[in-house]
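Researcher: Let's try something more involved. This one mixes different molecule types, so please make sure each is placed in the same coordinate frame as the others.
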Amino acid sequence: MLKKFVLGLALILLAGMILAQESGPTEFIIISKAPRKARIAIPIFKVKAISGENFVLGEELSEVLGKDLAKSGLFELIPRASYLRSSQIAPEVEDWPAWSILGGQALIRGEIVEVSSGQFEISLKLNDVVVQKLGVGKVYKGPKASLRRMMHRFADESIEWLTGKRGGFESRIAFVSNKTGRKEIYLADSDGFNPIQITASKKLNLSPAWLDSSRLYYVGYDQINPDLYLIDAFSKQKTLISAQTGLNISPAVGPAGKKLAFAMESPGNNLDIYIANPDGSKTQRLTYNPASDLEPSWSPDGHYLAFVSDRTGSPQVYMIDLYQGSEAEGNRPVRLSTTGAYNTSPAWSPDGRFLAYSRRIENQFDLFLIDFKAGDKRTEVQLTSTSYNEEDPGWSSDGRMLVYSANPNGNYDIFMISIYSKEPVQITDWASNETQPSWSQNLFEKGG
Amino acid sequence: MIRKVGFSVLAALALILAASCGQDAKKAIDEAQLALNQARDADAEQYAPDEYKSAEGLLTKANDEYSSRDYKQSQADAASSKEQSDLAKKRALDRKAEEQAKSKETTVAYNVTSLGEVPIIEQARAALKDVNFEFDSADLGDSAKEILVGNAKWLKDHPGLKIQIEGHCDERGTEDYNLALGEKRAKAVRDYLVSLGIAPSGLSIISYGESMPLDSGHDESAWAKNRRAHFAVIAIQK
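Model: All components are placed in one shared frame. Result:
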């Protein structure tokens, strides 16, 4: 009893810090063989609100957490209807056999208390059903508006418990929408909630790319020319980064945000890739080809740049070694895409292992992965195979998922897919077109 | 048991009903969007700003309601938005015609020989024809060249106009690649006009990629219309 009390006290005192993290069943995941998902039960959280018990809140928040875990492709939710013990309230001693008989490996219990008006405290416990012990225990405090974010944070914690690597759900996605009739840039939580519009130029706004947790590059037609801007998501203040007459497009942020790559037409030249400082200064030309070179993507170590070029007549994915100087110095790009007549949108995974891209097959686009580390040779994995389009892949910070745009309903919406389970999940359901998503880094690391 | 079946049938019906409402709302939003685009093309932002703003606001509202699954309200607001857009378009066209008639009476004629009644911008809009392209190509076909020869002749007859050539693409392919492709199309048209003796100083180019389709459809006939170079008068030099 005393031990429990001390534990409870410590949980409160060390809110938000790892208290008791058992080394969970870590799995080494290989993409060619999908891992068996961990079966998890998440009974509806218990709520003690000042205005009495609030069942809906407990249901909503347990749903947010459950959806993240299911979406990750690493967990499988045990349907609530099959629970033997359906009580929301955790008993003094968990009835472990009642969960393990359902094949459960983990059980998350949550309790939400409104400590003062509008201020909440959530205690979340992931229990390891197999060893019958607490796996991860956290207490988070904050106003009502922060409750969903706490769920995303605990989803990331749960994924870390299972795999040893933190998840990427406490994050935001930036994307383009023509909801107002013109393409503007929007932000939303990683599950599509809390959308906000951040540009309002009533012109064209395209290609958002996160520089850090609060600033994004994008292409804007404010001055009737596609120019490159940097915008602060909070103050909405814009800075002009590149404004050569002609195209200034395809912003791509290098490792740690120290360099920027983009595609530009300098006076008298066609579209080529340039490298610059984050503020657009010290621009250096990288490619020198009379064809269009665009859509750069950095390898996470900053050694290589993947990009698209139509130098053979149709768009294909290439890679150039940044340690060997520019193309004018005899540095020849290597062609990576070998199949198909139309390959675009390369996106390098944060661990450097994969390059995602979009390939046109007949009249449709599907997502593919190049796996650089599958044994000795490079292999390709087809992620989607549908009768509609999947385009613009972007990675989650943990490198396990992609965000992309697809049009199964006619209009384009934002989707996510786990590269392991390959199960697509729809994130936005707007009537307009939502495209070009970019997934931010995990906001937790910034102390936010 | 019968009650249960009855209930599930009811539930299924309700689902179908909800889904069809969503479809109806989406259709209404599509139509409202199209009407808003047409109003914008008619310069309603300038000539009927109140109506235009109202249409724009209603469309945003309809979109928001769609997102929160309030399909009935969404459909109603989309319909009102369309009405406002249609009104904005009509008023903008009326007011523009009025203004142009007035300006003709009061201002000195352009340095350009105007064919009597019709203002030069309207003449240009009618005379300078769009040219179309094949998928993923900026090559000018024979029919495109014929059109450009006609456009060049008209431009020679009406010197002093500053023309912007807009390159457009269909919706297939990535945004960025289509920006590059649209730019190539606009350049191909500019270079051909220059080869026909049009001064390059009077021609500028811009790419809008896939963002400004003429036809919002998702089939080859829509795509064919959208793969185009379009001409716009951006200034009249004295």
